[in-house]
Task: inverse folding
C-alpha cells in the first residue's frame, strides 16, 4: 500500500496538486480482463476515473470519424502495427516525456514520441515434451526445414502476430528469402491454419503436431490455471523454446499506447502513460498477463523466467512495420491459409 | 391527384404522399451505411485489386459458394423435413418438438463454434469416449473428421441456422389448405408422394424465404468461419481491412459482395413472381395429421430430436457445464447483471423501433397500392440484412459522426454549447445499427402478413365508413399482428447475439453479454466467458418460446 500512496503523491504533485474528479477516456484493443487491473491500480493511485471501451478492429476508423469531438484521450493497442497505423493516420500526438523516454527502449517506441511500447511479448515455439523433449534451441529459419514436415501448427497467417513475424523476416532477409521461408513453413504444417495460439498447445497434446508457434504469455496463462484445469494440461504437454533468427534475437511484439490527437484531457493522458511504465504498473502487466515488462530491470514473472533469458531481436519495430502489408500479401501469395 | 378522389366512391382514395415520404425516409436511414461505404470505397485502394484477383478472391469465392451450398442443404433438409413431420404426422412428443425445434435460434454461431471445437477436439470428450470404446490409446490413431474445415463449418452453421427454414416452412404447411393434400391422398398419393408433389412445391416461396435468411446469416458470419479456418468473402473483407489497413479496399469488396447478393435476391424473387399464392383471411381448414406405425413414429421422434440435440443441446450443455465450473470456483461475474441489462435494453429498443419502421414501410406499400417508389423504398430499407455486421458498422461510422459533429457545430455557433457525440455517445448509434441490420425481418413479416389480407376486406371496411386510421387499427394491425409479433421476437434474439457492430459502436464503459464473451474469447479464456455466453442463450429462450407460442396459435 505504501508504494501506491507514494506514487499517488508523486503523481498528484506532477499533475499540479489536484487529482480529484479527473477523468480519462481510453479506447483499447487490449481485452478488458487484462486492462482492468491496470485501470484499478491507476484509479487507486491517482483518484482519476477511467472510462474505457474495448474495441477489436476499427478503433482507428472510429477515432477518425469522431474527429474533433472524439472523447478518446489514450489509444491503446496490442500490436505495434496498429500503433504505427494510428500515427500514420494522424490520430496521435507527440509526447515529450523524460519518464517515458527513460523507461522505454528506443527500438520499442516512435522516434518522434507518437507512441510508446508498454509491454512485450515474444513469438515463441511450444514444443512437445514427449516427442521433442531434448530440443533446447531453435531458429525461426529451421521452422521451414523439411525435418519438421507435417509437424508444425500455427494460427492464420493473416493474424497480426504472424504478419508481424513474417514482416520481420522480410525486413531482415528481403522479400525473396522470406517467400522461400514461408513456403517452406507452409509445407511443414500439420493442418490448415486455424484457431488461436493456445490451440497449438492443445493440438500438441493431441498429437496433431510437435511444434506450435505462439505468444509467450499464453503459456503463462495456461500454466497458471486461470484458463481452467483443461488448459493447464495443454501447457504441461509442452516446453517453451525462445527461437531466434539465425543471426539475431527473438521476435518481439509490443502492446503500447498513444495520446489521441484531440485528447480532451491531454495532461491526464500523459500521466497515465507515465504510470504504465512505473514499476508498479509494469509488475501488473507481468502478473495479469505474463508479459515481459518493457522497462529494463523490471522483474519478470517466474514462469517466464523459466523459458530462459529473452534476447530480443534488435531490428527496430518501425522498420518491420513498413513490411506489414507486404507480409500480408505474401501470406496470400503462398496460399498459407488455404 | 389525391384530392379530387376524396369522394365516397368504391375505390378508396389514394393516400399517397404521407406514406410514401415516411417510407422513403426510412429507406434513406437504412441506406446511410451503404453511402458511408461508397464514400470509403471511392477514396481508391491503390493496386489492391490485381492482388485480390490473383490470390484471394478465387479461393474466397469458391469457399463461400461451397459453404453456402452446404449450409443450404443442411438447413433446408432439416428445416423442411422437421416442419413436414410435425405438421403432417402424429407421434409421441410432437407438441413439444414443435417448439423445441426452434431452440438453436438462441445459440450464437460463434459460441456454437467454440463449444464444438472443444467437444470434438482429439482430446475432447467425444473422441476420448470413442477411443475408450475402441480401445485406442493415442489420439492420432483415431480417424475423426476435423471440424476446422469447410465441411465442418457448413455442418455447424446448418445445424444452428435451420430454424429460419423450419419457422417459415412450418407456418406455410400449417396454413396450406387441407383440400389439396386430401385430394392428393384420395388420388392415391401416400405421405411421401403427397409431400413431394403437393406440399413441397406449394411451400417453395416459404422455403426460399427461410433458406435465404439462413444463407444471409451464414454469409455474414465472421466469428465461426474465421475460428474454423474457412476463408469466406466476409473473412477476406475483414482481412483486407485489418491486415492491409485498407478500409477502402474492404469497402470495395463489401459493395461488390452486396451487389451480388442483391442481384441473387432479385433473381430469386423474379423466378417465383408468378407463384403468388392467394390465401383466405380466415384460417383454412387444416389437413388432418396421420398416425404412422410404431417404427415410423420412432423415426419421427429421432428425426426431430437429433437436430435439437446437435444444434442446441450439445453446445448448451457444454456451456452449462463450463459456466457451472466457473461459478463454483469464482462466483458470478460481478458485471453480469449490468451486462444482461445492457444487452436486453439495446435489443429491446432496437426491436421496438425496427418493428414500427418495418410495419410502416410495408404498410406504405399497401396504402399506396404498391406504387413503384414505395416498392423501391421497401427493398432499400431491407438492405442491412444483406451486409455483414462489421461492414455495416464501419459504413455507419462516417455518417453518424458527421451528423454528430454537424449538430455540435451548430449548437456551438448558436448557443455556445457543445453537444459532443450526441448519437454515438449515448448508444443511439448502436440501436440505429441494429435497426438497419435487422429491419428486413419485420418488413418481410409485415409484408407477408398484409398480403394475406385481401383488398376486398379494405373495400368492405371503407364502405362501412372506416377511415384510413380506422382501417389500420381495426383491420390490418390485428390481422398482421401474429406475423409481426414473431418478427419482433426474432429481431430481439438476433440483436442480443449481434457482435461486430456492438463491439465497434457502443459507448464508453458499456459492455454487453456478447462483447464480454468476445473479450474473453479473444484472449483464449473461453471458460471465463462461459457464464455470459450461457446468459445470452438463456435470455434468448423466452422470446424463442414466445415465437413458438405465437405461431402455434396461428396453427
Result:
Amino acid at each position: 500500500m505504501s508504494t501506491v500512496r507514494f506514487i499517488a503523491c508523486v503523481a498528484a504533485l506532477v499533475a499540479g496538486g489536484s487529482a480529484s474528479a479527473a477523468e480519462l477516456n481510453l479506447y483499447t484493443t487490449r481485452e478488458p480482463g487484462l486492462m482492468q487491473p491496470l485501470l484499478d491500480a491507476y484509479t487507486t493511485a491517482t483518484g482519476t476515473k477511467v472510462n474505457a471501451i474495448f474495441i477489436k478492429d476499427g478503433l482507428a476508423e472510429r477515432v477518425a470519424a469522431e474527429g474533433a469531438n472524439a472523447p478518446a484521450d489514450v489509444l491503446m493497442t496490442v500490436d505495434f502495427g496498429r500503433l504505427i497505423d494510428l500515427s500514420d493516420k494522424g490520430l496521435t500526438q507527440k509526447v515529450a516525456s523524460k519518464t517515458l523516454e527513460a523507461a522505454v527502449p528506443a527500438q520499442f517506441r516512435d522516434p518522434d514520441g507518437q507512441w510508446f511500447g508498454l509491454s512485450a511479448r515474444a513469438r515463441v515455439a511450444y514444443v512437445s515434451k514427449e516427442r521433442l523433449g531434448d530440443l533446447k534451441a531453435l531458429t525461426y529459419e529451421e521452422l521451414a526445414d523439411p525435418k519438421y514436415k507435417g509437424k508444425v501448427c500455427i494460427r492464420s497467417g493473416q493474424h497480426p502476430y504472424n504478419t508481424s513475424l513474417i514482416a520481420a523476416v522480410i525486413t531482415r532477409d528481403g522479400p525473396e528469402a522470406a517467400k522461400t521461408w514461408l513456403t517452406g513453413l507452409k509445407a511443414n504444417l500439420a493442418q490448415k491454419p486455424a484457431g488461436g495460439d493456445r490451440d497449438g498447445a492443445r493440438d500438441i497434446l493431441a498429437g496433431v503436431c510437435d511444434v506450435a508457434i505462439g505468444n509467450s504469455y499464453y503459456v503463462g496463462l495456461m500454466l497458471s490455471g486461470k484458463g481452467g484445469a483443461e488448459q493447464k494440461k495443454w501447457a504441461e504437454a509442452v516446453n517453451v523454446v525462445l527461437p531466434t533468427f539465425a543471426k539475431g534475437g527473438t521476435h518481439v511484439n509490443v502492446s503500447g499506447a498513444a495520446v489521441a490527437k484531440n485528447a480532451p484531457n491531454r495532461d491526464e493522458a500523459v500521466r497515465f502513460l507515465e504510470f504504465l511504465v512505473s514499476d508498479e504498473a509494469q509488475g501488473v502487466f507481468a502478473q495479469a498477463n505474463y508479459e515481459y515488462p518493457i522497462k529494463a530491470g523490471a522483474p519478470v514473472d517466474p514462469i517466464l523466467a523459466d523459458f530462459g533469458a529473452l534476447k530480443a531481436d534488435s531490428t527496430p519495430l518501425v522498420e518491420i512495420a513498413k513490411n506489414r502489408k507486404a507480409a500480408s500479401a505474401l501470406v496470400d501469395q503462398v496460399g498459407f491459409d488455404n | 391527384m389525391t384530392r379530387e378522389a376524396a369522394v365516397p366512391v368504391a375505390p378508396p382514395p389514394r393516400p399517397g404522399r404521407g406514406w410514401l415520404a415516411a417510407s422513403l425516409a426510412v429507406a434513406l436511414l437504412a441506406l446511410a451505411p451503404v453511402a458511408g461505404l461508397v464514400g470509403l470505397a471511392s477514396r481508391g485502394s491503390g493496386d489492391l485489386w490485381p492482388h485480390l484477383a490473383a490470390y484471394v478472391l478465387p479461393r474466397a469465392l469458391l469457399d463461400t459458394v461451397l459453404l453456402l451450398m452446404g449450409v443450404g442443404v443442411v438447413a433446408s433438409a432439416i428445416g423442411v423435413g422437421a416442419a413436414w413431420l410435425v405438421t403432417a404426422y402424429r407421434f409421441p412428443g410432437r407438441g413439444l418438438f414443435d417448439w423445441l425445434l426452434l431452440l438453436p435460434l438462441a445459440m450464437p454461431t460463434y459460441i456454437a463454434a467454440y463449444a464444438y471445437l472443444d467437444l470434438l477436439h482429439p482430446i475432447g470428450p467425444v473422441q476420448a469416449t470413442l477411443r475408450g470404446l475402441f480401445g485406442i490409446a493415442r489420439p492420432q490413431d483415431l480417424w475423426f473428421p476435423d471440424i476446422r474445415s469447410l465441411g465442418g463449418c457448413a455442418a455447424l452453421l446448418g445445424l444452428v441456422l435451420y430454424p429460419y427454414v423450419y419457422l417459415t416452412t412450418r407456418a406455410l404447411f400449417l396454413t396450406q389448405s387441407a383440400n389439396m393434400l386430401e385430394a392428393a391422398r384420395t388420388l392415391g398419393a401416400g405421405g411421401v408422394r403427397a409431400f413431394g408433389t403437393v406440399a413441397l412445391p406449394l411451400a417453395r416461396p416459404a422455403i426460399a424465404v427461410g433458406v435465404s435468411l439462413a444463407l444471409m446469416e451464414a454469409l455474414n458470419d465472421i466469428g465461426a468461419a474465421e475460428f474454423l479456418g474457412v476463408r469466406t468473402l466476409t473473412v477476406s473483407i475483414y482481412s483486407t481491412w485489418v491486415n492491409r489497413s485498407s478500409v477502402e479496399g474492404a469497402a470495395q469488396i463489401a459493395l461488390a459482395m452486396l451487389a451480388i447478393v442483391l442481384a441473387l435476391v432479385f433473381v430469386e424473387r423474379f423466378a417465383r413472381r408468378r407463384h403468388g399464392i392467394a390465401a383466405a383471411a380466415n384460417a383454412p381448414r387444416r389437413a388432418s395429421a396421420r398416425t404412422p406405425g410404431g417404427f415410423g413414429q420412432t423415426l419421427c421422434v429421432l428425426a426431430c430430436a437429433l437436430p435439437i440435440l446437435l444444434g442446441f443441446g450439445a453446445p448448451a450443455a457444454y456451456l452449462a457445464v463450463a459456466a457451472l465450473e466457473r461459478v463454483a470456483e469464482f462466483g458470478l461475474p460481478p458485471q453480469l447483471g449490468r451486462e444482461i441489462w445492457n444487452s436486453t435494453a439495446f435489443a429491446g429498443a432496437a426491436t421496438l423501433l425496427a418493428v414500427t419502421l418495418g410495419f410502416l414501410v410495408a404498410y406504405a406499400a399497401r396504402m399506396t397500392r404498391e406504387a413503384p417508389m414505395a416498392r423501391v423504398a421497401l427493398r432499400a430499407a431491407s438492405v442491412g440484412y444483406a451486409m455483414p455486421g462489421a461492414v455495416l458498422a464501419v459504413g455507419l461510422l462516417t455518417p453518424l459522426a458527421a451528423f454528430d459533429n454537424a449538430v455540435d457545430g451548430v449548437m456551438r455557433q448558436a448557443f455556445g454549447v457543445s453537444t459532443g457525440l450526441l448519437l454515438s455517445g449515448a448508444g443511439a448509434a448502436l440501436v440505429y445499427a441494429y435497426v438497419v441490420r435487422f429491419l428486413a425481418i419485420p418488413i418481410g413479416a409485415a409484408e407477408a402478413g398484409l398480403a394475406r389480407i385481401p383488398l376486398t376486406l379494405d373495400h368492405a371496411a371503407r364502405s362501412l365508413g372506416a377511415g384510413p386510421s380506422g382501417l389500420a387499427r381495426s383491420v390490418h394491425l390485428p390481422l398482421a399482428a401474429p406475423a409481426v409479433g414473431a418478427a419482433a421476437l426474432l429481431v430481439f434474439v438476433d440483436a442480443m447475439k449481434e457482435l461486430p457492430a456492438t463491439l465497434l459502436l457502443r459507448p464508453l464503459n458499456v459492455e454487453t453479454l456478447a462483447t464480454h464473451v468476445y473479450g474473453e474469447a479473444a484472449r483464449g479464456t473461453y471458460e471465463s466467458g462461459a457464464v455470459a455466453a450461457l446468459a445470452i442463450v438463456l435470455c434468448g429462450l423466452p422470446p424463442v418460446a414466445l415465437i413458438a407460442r405465437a405461431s402455434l396459435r396461428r396453427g
About this structure: The two ends of chain B are 43 Å apart (CA to CA).
